[in-house]
Amino acid sequence: MESLATGISNLLAALDPDEAKLLRIAQNNTRYKNSVVSTWSDDPNVADFLLSHTNGLYFKEDTAPRKGAAKDKGWYLLGVYIDDSMARSEINARRELLRLAMAQEGLHVDEIVIHPARAGMKEHHLFPESVERIAQLLGCAQADSPSGKRVPKADARHARADQSILLETVKRAFCRSFENLDQAGSILEKIEGAALVETKFSRRAASGTPYYRLHLYASDREKMQAVIDAYGDTVISCAKPLGLMIQGIAVHESNETLRGTCAFPKTGQPVALEDLNLHELRTESLQIAEDVRRKVRTGG
Known about the structure:
It is built from 10 helices and 6 strands. By secondary structure, the protein is of the alpha/beta class. It folds into 2 domains: 4-157, no CATH class; 160-298, GMP Synthetase, Chain A, domain 3 (2-Layer Sandwich), CATH 3.30.300. Mean pLDDT is 77; it is low at 140-161.
């Protein structure tokens, strides 16, 4: 029995060029839609909001000359036309996670380019079913009609800085730290437990900006430690412009409860450690701080 991929390839081969092009466009639109739903699985209404304001997509190779190690490699773009500034900001905030989700759908791009939809393009809605769902949610005929009710804000999840949201920023930092998303994904899937503990002892934290110590658990602690030794500073640097200040990364061996789990699943929000684990990690972080103070006082 042939695979689904083989069946689709055979179907494309049997179509004339115009029909094959239309089928590829439909496939890419579906992959993009699935990727948005996956990336914003923590709030399906936000996913529908983003899709309802998506007016067009294109996929192409960027043929402009490039420098560095990637100068001889193909560079592929996904262009997205969006008619709402809040939706554009939300896509931009999670663009690395969206690229990772797209790669898992079989749609590999090196860069997402976000454009404002203008003039007649605003009238074209690529995902009308999402427009309808948003309209029903608002209780009005059209999703963008003035109704006295507000579209649910895409950034409402930031109302509370809970662990899942903080760890999502960690995931984005990992995606930015490696040469490609496949490398980042392979590392993230080996992290079985994760938590960010605020380091209240920090002088910098007293200025109003919270600083955190990132704790990671893995069954093969030595291999994960080697990765963090090599890329930890890069992850910390990539997290900073995303608004997350990390002072250090600690790697622990997973206990029996954590073995076989995944702190950063391919779909949905990251899974934070339970409160008991966080309490233990907070105690550990404070002990580390006390050790640092003692060394400073004694000159050791």
